[in-house]
Amino acid sequence: MIGNIISSMKIVNELFLFVLVFCLTACGYNSTISESNTSASEISYIENKGSDTIVNLALAWAEAYQKSHPNINISVTGGGSGTGISALINGTTDIANASRQIKPEEIDAIQETGVVPIEYVIARDAIAVIVHLDNPIDQLTLQQISDIYSGKINNWYEIGGEDRPIVRLSRETNSGTHVYFLEEVLRLGDKTNNTLFSPDTLLLPSSEVISAEIRDNPNAIGYDGLGYVTDDMKVVAVAIDNQHPPVIPSIDSVNDDTYPISRNLYMYTAGEPPEIMKNYLNWVMSQEAQSIVIDLGFVPLANNQ
């Protein structure tokens, strides 16, 4: 009787060990599948920071790219071109957006980290000069705009408008648009010219804030990237001088170089980017991505129109 019990217990134990080994083997197999699935679904992150002119375009690009590349997560923030390039220098962003070219001292700072900055032209833009819809001024020369922003002209009646004080609106100094406007409009592209913004110029933190102020203030003048211009503000036609016709900013007038305040838009990396970033940057210059440029009111690269 006791022998039968012991024999039965051995059978139970052997059965238990068999089941245990089977379970462990199965669990191990499932673990391998789970690890494989986790590896396949790993998310790669791209940090993208800088120009407020580009930020809406960069956000639209990121959204579109992530739909077809779900394993890529692209974080986009603004702050200005200078902020983006500073982040590239200190290693806190992968791609810097800039509405101006990188400065020599910024190139030197990146090279001190052992790499050289790589420049990508990703779109073009016109800087539109904007006023309130009720402002009767329709056109200005570059010299008149320079004189307004430097404080030589202070009342709209001096250039054929109403007797109203001019309220000058500008982006802040870390903005690439501010730098470009200073160098190419106030200083008329003359590197020996030291003209500065009038001290009473209101420095505003974003294109959206400038647009909002223009809508509300009939005395104001501002400038914004073409992609931020809406129907509830007036775009002033700009002439190079009195011998040239005034031109409204548009895709055509930027591409044929008749509108005098236009520029390239850039992305920068610190050294050659890894494959994930390179694939994204190549896509940015594709026809698919450049169609988004048009949708947002900017000017696409010439070979993608």
Structure characterization notes:
- The termini are far apart.
- The longest helix has 39 residues, at 2-40.
- The protein has 305 residues and is of the alpha/beta class.
- Strand 1 (44-50), helix 2 (52-68) and strand 2 (72-77) form a beta-alpha-beta unit.
- 35% of the residues are buried.
- It has helices spanning 2-40, 52-68, 81-89, 104-111, 142-150, 176-186, 207-216, 251-255, 275-284, 287-295, and strands at residues 44-50, 72-77, 95-98, 117-131, 139-141, 167-171, 202-204, 220-225, 234-239, 262-270.
- Strands 1, 2, 3, 4, 5, 6, 7, 8, 9 and 10 form a 10-stranded mixed beta sheet that branches.
- The protein folds into 2 domains: 1-42; 44-305, Periplasmic binding protein-like II (D-Maltodextrin-Binding Protein, domain 2, 3-Layer(aba) Sandwich), CATH 3.40.190.10.
Q: Using only CA atoms, what is the Rg? A: 29 Å
Oligomer: single chain
**Averaged pLDDT:** 88
What is the CATH architecture annotation of the largest domain? 3-Layer(aba) Sandwich
Termini, distance in Å?
94 Å
Low-confidence stretches: 1-41
- List the total number of helices: 10
Q: Please count the beta strands (DSSP E, at least 2 residues each).
A: 10
